[in-house]
Amino acid sequence: MEKGTPKIVIAFDGFSSSGKSTMARALAKRLGYRYIDSGAMYRAVTLYALEHGMIGADGTVDAEALTKTLPEINIDFAVQPDGSQHTVLNGKDVESEIRNIEVSSHVSAVAALPAIRHDLVTKQQAFGKSKGIIMDGRDIGTTVFPDAELKIFVNAPAATRALRRYEELKAKGQQVSYDEILANVEQRDHLDSTRAESPLRRADDAIDLDNSDMTIAQQDAWLDKVVAERLKAL
Ligand code: CDP
């Protein structure tokens, strides 16, 4: 990026497993921006709730107990030698654990709790104070950074997204079935879009990206063009 170019806030929102994180992370690297995965924060709180018996066998979350312990849940991101970031929960690297199917099955219920959302949104907004940030999630362009200079809304059919997530988890050596992943993707899409508190919604001023038939390189080139146009228009 040219010297003197002002830094902006870029919001990526969209349905589960749409590839937001991969493209947002890579874009942040190209721009020299900080990348924050807001979903990882909801996942870390969910892992904490599971580990502390706050989610029952029927999936019910003990909202009161979890809300009370919020001050004890410390979430951070640790930059790795290769430049990637790992999610750290109370001092422990949980990057791999928070992606497992158990966390994925409960995260949308946890993320629907207003007290949890208020707490995490405040933390996310603090990350954006210094600009030069890219954040991905469900409500970044609508609630976390409604004034973001650039908002992208990513979507692709559920079957395409489930296949991507299936291959990603299989490559990491996790034992998963495609049907289980597809069911999880569809369940989270539904819960995320229908919850009362800041549901997944496309911001009115967002730019749509359907990346079903795009390679990573095509996706990156599309994004670079959109970012360049936005920066020029500042
Ligand atoms: O990467 P994937 O699409 O599987 O999801 P994620 O970004 O890791 O987010 C996991 C879950 O956290 C979502 O299904 C939402 O329930 C919740 N979430 C949210 O409510 N708001 C956000 N800003 C980000 C995630």
Quick recap:
By secondary structure, this protein is an alpha/beta fold. 47% of the residues lie in helices and 16% in strands. β3 (75-79) and β4 form a beta hairpin.
Give the secondary structure arrangement, pairings included.
Elements: E1 9-14, H1 20-31, E2 34-37, H2 38-51, H3 63-69, E3 75-79, E4 85-89, E5 92-93, H4 101-111, H5 114-127, E6 133-137, H6 140-144, E7 150-155, H7 158-171, H8 178-194, E8 207-210, H9 216-232
Note down, in words, how this protein is organized.
- The protein is an alpha/beta fold.
- It contains 9 helices and 8 strands.
- It has a 5-stranded parallel beta sheet with strand order 2-6-1-7-8. Strands 3-4-5 form a 3-stranded antiparallel beta sheet.
- Cytidine-5'-diphosphate (CDP) binds at residues 16-17, 21, 38-39, 42-43, 107-108, 111, 137-140, 188, 192.
Question: Tags for this entry?
Answer:
5-stranded parallel beta sheet; 234 residues; binds cytidine-5'-diphosphate; alpha/beta
